[in-house]
Amino acid sequence: MGHRAGARMMARRAIFRLLLLGVGPRLAGATLIVAALWAGFFLATSTPGAL
Amino acid sequence: MIWDAIFQPFADFGFMRRALLGCIAISVGATPVGVFLMLRRMSLTGDAMACAILPGAAVGYLVAGLSLGAMTVGGLIAGMAVALLSGFVSRVTALREDASLAAFYLISLALGVLIISTRGSNVDLMHVLFGTVLALDDAALILLCSIASLSVLTLATLFRPLVLECADPQFLRSVSGLSAVTHFTFLALVVLNLVGGFHALGTLMAVGIMILPAAAARFWAVSIGGLVLVAIVIAMLASLSGLLLSYHYSLPSGPAIILVAGIAYGVSLVLGPSDSLVAQALLRRHFEA
User: Fold this and answer.
1) Cα separations (Å) of B218 from B20, B32, B39, B212, B222?
2) In the predicted model, what is the mean pLDDT of residues B49-70?
3) Global pTM?
């Protein structure tokens, strides 16, 4: 019984790992986009304009 | 000439730069959510949710006037409440989820318009329904950029479960406990982006920048990553063109942006390389030859 539960746990962990495959590069790309967005925010709000 | 037409408005006027940044933030945050809504066959759910946030925003307006914080919190609460209530009704009764969502969103829309009309002026009603993209202040921009950042980072983390949820939700439910987490996180992202979009484009137009670029991208890209990328580019170009059109021809900005996105959809429908009318005609001629 315990052995079967352990096997199920292992399988779930393997699937969880599969679902998170490639999350590092995706998060790195997302961080770059977020950084560019906030840079745009500081540019748009700090540059003087007529209005 | 090109400088005058395209760059001059943004170089000269701070409100144009703010409007463009607000639209870019919405394009980056809301459009990928729209792609997943389309892939999950929930495009009309986005429209329903956009109307569902109205009574919450209206109550926020009643309590604190045109306050960004109060209207945002009110809209978030109303949107999440309608999403959960329609799901609950469809689970405990024979009514299907689309019907219960339609019922709740019609009630919400009527209630929201009633609250604003009885206590506010027509200008306030127009502000809530169609947004004020040319009047975005620092607080509104911080809200839009924060929502876009949260959306991009969350979608990057949950990308694979979301794709699986689009392709085969039963499989994801059977092999992983992430199904419910993914579904509710995604619903929260939909509501969050609609609430953010509502400050710029209004409750009726916010869903346009979410769905139209996603639908247009369907005719240009095949992979999900490609769909997201093309949809964001279309949304940004529509925002830029819509703002310029509204500046040069004194048109209302929100509808101009959505109409340009609509034109992009029309062009894609006819000329896109993947499954468009022309592509299908060419393919048919190829098989007949």
Assistant:
1) 25, 12, 10, 10, 7
2) 83
3) 0.89
